Structures are given as C-alpha cells and as structure tokens.
C-alpha cells in the first residue's frame, strides 16, 4: 500500500488546480446552459439537486467529515486504516439503503416532488454515488494529486456531453443526468482504486459499533450544516416558482464558486491540523493563524470585486433573463467572508476534539436558516433567500466565535484583521471615483479592467499596511526572480 504524504504546498497547489477547474468549467457551461434551459429549467434542476442533497446528508451520517479525522489518525497503521475504512463502508451501505427507501416514498407522496418524478429519480442515483465515493479516505491520506486529475477528467467528459446533448429547454432532464455524472461520476473511480490501499477483511472481524459514539456529533453537525447551507434553495423551491429558483440558483452558483476559490487552500489543512493537534501544538497554532489571515485577505478581495462587477457577472453567466439576480448577488456577498471564517473555526473545533460544540453550532445554524428563510422569502423572493443565507452564516460565525473564544484570545495578538478590509474598501472607493470619468461598458472588459485595477490598488495598500501574508508572497516572488 502506497500512501505517500505530500507537503502542504503540493496539496495546496493540487487543490487550487482542482478548485480552478471547478471555477473555470462553470464559466464555460453556465452561460450556455442558462440560456438554453431558461430560468424555469435551471430552477427545476437546482431544486431537485437540493432535495437530493438533503437525503444524501442523512445517508452519509457525518462520515464525510468524521471519516477524514478517523482515517487521518490511523493512516500510519495500514491494518487499522483498512479496518476503519471497511467499517465505515458497511455503515454507509445500511444508512443509504434506508435513506433511499425514504426518498422513494417522498417522491410518491409529496406533490411538489411527484410533479417531476423522472428528474428526481435521475438525481436519486446521486445518493448511492455520494455515499460510496470515499472522498474522505483520499483526503485523509492526502491524495490530492489523484483527486485533482480524476475530477478534471470527469468534468471534461461532462462538458462534452452537455454540448452534445443539451440544445433546448426540454432537455433539462438530460442536463440533470450530466449534473449527476459530473458531480459524482468520479466516485466510481474512487471505489475501484480503493483496493490499491485497503485490504478488506471478513465482516465478522469488524467492530462497527465503536464508531457510533464519536460519529454522533458529526452526524448532527454535518446534517445540520449541510441542511442550513441548502435551506435557502429548498425553501425557495417550496415557496416560489421554478423561475424564481432559477434566478437564485445562478446567484448561489456564483457564491459557491467564489467560496471554493477562497477555501482552496483552507480545505487541505484539516488532515494536517488533526495530526498537529496530537503531535505539535505550536505548528497547530501557526497553521490556524495562517488560515485566518488567508481567508481575510482573499474574502475581502472577492467581495469587493464581485460587488463592483455584479451586473457584468450576471450578464455574462446568465444573460438578459437573469438581470434581476444582481440585487440578490449583492445581498449574498457578505456570506463569502462568513462561510470561509466558519470553515476555519470548524477546523479548529473538529481537530481539537470539540465535536459537541461543532454540532450545536450547526444545529443552531439550521434553525436560524429556516427562520430567516420563512421570514424573508415570502416578501422578497430570491433577494430574501440571499439575505437569509448571509444572516445565517453570520449567526453561525458568532456562535462559533463564542465556543472558540479561549483559542481566539490566544491567537488574537498574532492575527492581522484590519489591513485586508481597509485595503479592499480603499481600492473599491478609488475605482468608483475613476468610474465617474470613464469605465468600459461591455461586461467582459469591465470585469477585466476592474480586476486589474483592483489587484494593483489592493496589493499596494496591503504592502503599505504591512500585511504579512502579502509581504511574504512578494518576498518569495522577488527572491525567485533574482
């Protein structure tokens, strides 16, 4: 069994390539498919995808998070690692079977779902593919090179299929199949490759029950966090038309792409954090501080640039049918910072053994999300869903800060909270003043001009404010140049 553990720099680069592909492919596919299927078709697919994600969360039982920690902790012991993976797969087989039965009953008796049963049956296959993707195992042993190559290959195939078979509004079922394949097709390869790492043993030699207690908190937290992340889309689907859902799904896609870009480095840290939590408190502390600095730096830039280019982004990705999505996009942008900081603090709670507090936060987030959606969606539609998303993430962040207050107190002196927001606000203000005199009117030149000028101004301000991450990057670039 070969489980070579690469450096964090290699993993971060691989994950950034993976995230870049997750960013680039939608930039190619979304403008095309949004115009072909129109908001109603896109809304139908987005709603079905959100409903299935709810059932998938129940089937996974929190193993997508628990599995990373459980496997990372024993990755140096091949026999114990194999046993752990097999035990978790047996649990998943039982939970997915029960969940799929409940899903079929929902399709039969819930009118909103029964109205387009073929589409929901297509997405039902994602339940099985998601459960047996064992992505948690490959993350635990830090096989980010494999994850990246495999994912890009599947996306390329999905891209070809989309242009080959999606040509008119009635093809939204076909598009649903392609979405399932692109999102979960790589999981088949994961299972096929698993035998290269794992030696399966007879079932009677397994101890499945030992996972139940530590999984309990992960179950509550993972299901809750996943549900509150999708609550806006699901409740919007029940409270509004497919057209409104179609408008909002474009906003949600943009938010997701930006969050993935910001979290590209942050997400690779969890296995290493779990290891450092046991073996090196100093490295554990330093890594979390770097994560927070990174999030503040890139989230501030992402929010500012997206706000400056909101109309242009909507025009490029959706076209004239989606122009009403500009206001919801502005309302959801604060969530970029809240989501990313929530990710970092969640890493702290998980890697330091605070699963109970992690679960409480996510459950509270779910409750607050439902309340915000029920209050804001009826009067404001897609804009209300966007506002509820930002408010929910802010609520979750405040509670996480409360539970992590002792840790935050210890690292506060090492954090640089002020430079990034000030630099982003200053750069934004200067660009708004420049726009009074002249600025490109076409969407793409507008985005390019904004991105270029903002990057120059933002970097200059960060250097002026002596932001250490920026200084470190510039020193490395200068050193390599000379």
Automatic annotation (TrEMBL):
Keyword set includes Membrane: yes
Name the InterPro entries on file: Polysacc_synth, PolySynth_Transporter
The alphabetized UniProt keywords are: Membrane, Transmembrane, Transmembrane helix
Localization: Membrane
- The answer on whether this UniProt entry bears the keyword Cytoplasm reads no
A Pfam family reported for this protein in Swiss-Prot or TrEMBL: Polysacc_synt
Membrane topology for this entry? Answer: Multi-pass membrane protein
Bilayer-spanning residue ranges: 12-34, 46-68, 88-107, 119-138, 145-166, 172-194, 215-240, 246-270, 291-314, 326-345, 357-377, 383-403, 415-438, 444-465
Gene Ontology cellular-component annotations: membrane
Its name, as the record gives it, is Polysaccharide biosynthesis protein
Organism expressing this protein natively: Bifidobacterium felsineum
């Amino acid at each position: 069994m070969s489980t070579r553990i690469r450096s964090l720099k290699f993993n971060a680069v691989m994950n950034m390539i993976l995230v870049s592909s997750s960013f680039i492919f939608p930039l190619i596919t979304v403008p095309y498919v949004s115009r072909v299927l129109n908001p109603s078709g896109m809304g139908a697919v987005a709603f079905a995808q959100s409903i299935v994600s709810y059932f998938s969360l129940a089937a996974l039982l929190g193993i997508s998070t628990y599995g990373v920690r459980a496997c990372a902790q024993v990755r140096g012991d091949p026999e114990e690692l194999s046993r752990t993976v097999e035990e978790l797969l047996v649990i998943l087989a039982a939970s997915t079977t029960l969940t799929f039965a409940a899903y079929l009953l929902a399709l039969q008796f819930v009118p909103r779902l029964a109205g387009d049963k073929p589409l929901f049956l297509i997405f039902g296959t994602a339940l099985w593919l998601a459960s047996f993707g064992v992505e948690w195992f490959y993350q635990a042993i830090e096989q980010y090179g494999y994850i990246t190559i495999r994912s890009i290959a599947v996306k390329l195939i999905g891209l070809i299929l989309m242009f080959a078979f999606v040509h008119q509004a009635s093809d939204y079922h076909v598009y649903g199949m392609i979405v399932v394949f692109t999102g979960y097709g790589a999981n088949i390869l994961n299972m096929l490759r698993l035998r290269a790492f794992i030696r399966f043993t007879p079932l009677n030699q397994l101890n499945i029950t030992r996972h139940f207690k530590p999984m309990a908190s992960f179950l509550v937290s993972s299901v809750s966090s996943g549900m509150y992340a999708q609550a806006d889309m699901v409740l919007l689907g029940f409270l509004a038309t497919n057209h409104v859902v179609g408008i909002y799904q474009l906003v949600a896609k943009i938010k997701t792409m930006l969050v993935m870009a910001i979290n590209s480095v942050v997400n690779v840290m969890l296995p290493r954090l779990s290891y450092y939590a046991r073996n090196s408190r100093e490295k554990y502390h330093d890594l979390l501080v770097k994560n927070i600095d990174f999030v503040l730096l890139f989230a501030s830039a992402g929010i500012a640039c997206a706000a400056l280019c909101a109309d242009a982004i909507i025009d490029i990705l959706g076209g004239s049918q989606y122009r009403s999505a500009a206001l919801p996009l502005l309302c959801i942008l604060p969530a970029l910072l809240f989501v990313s900081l929530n990710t970092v603090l969640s890493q702290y709670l998980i890697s330091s053994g605070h699963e109970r507090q992690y679960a409480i936060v996510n459950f509270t987030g779910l409750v607050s999300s439902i309340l915000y959606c029920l209050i804001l969606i009826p009067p404001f539609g897609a804009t209300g869903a966007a506002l509820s998303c930002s408010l929910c993430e802010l609520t979750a962040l405040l509670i996480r800060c409360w539970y992590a207050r002792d840790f935050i107190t210890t690292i506060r002196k090492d954090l640089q909270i002020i430079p990034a927001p000030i630099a982003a606000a200053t750069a934004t203000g200067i660009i708004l003043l420049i726009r009074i005199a002249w600025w490109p009117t076409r969407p793409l030149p507008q985005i390019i001009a904004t991105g270029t000028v903002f990057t120059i101004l933002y970097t200059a301000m960060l250097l002026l404010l002596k932001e250490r991450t920026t200084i470190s990057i510039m020193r490395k670039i200068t050193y390599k140049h000379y």
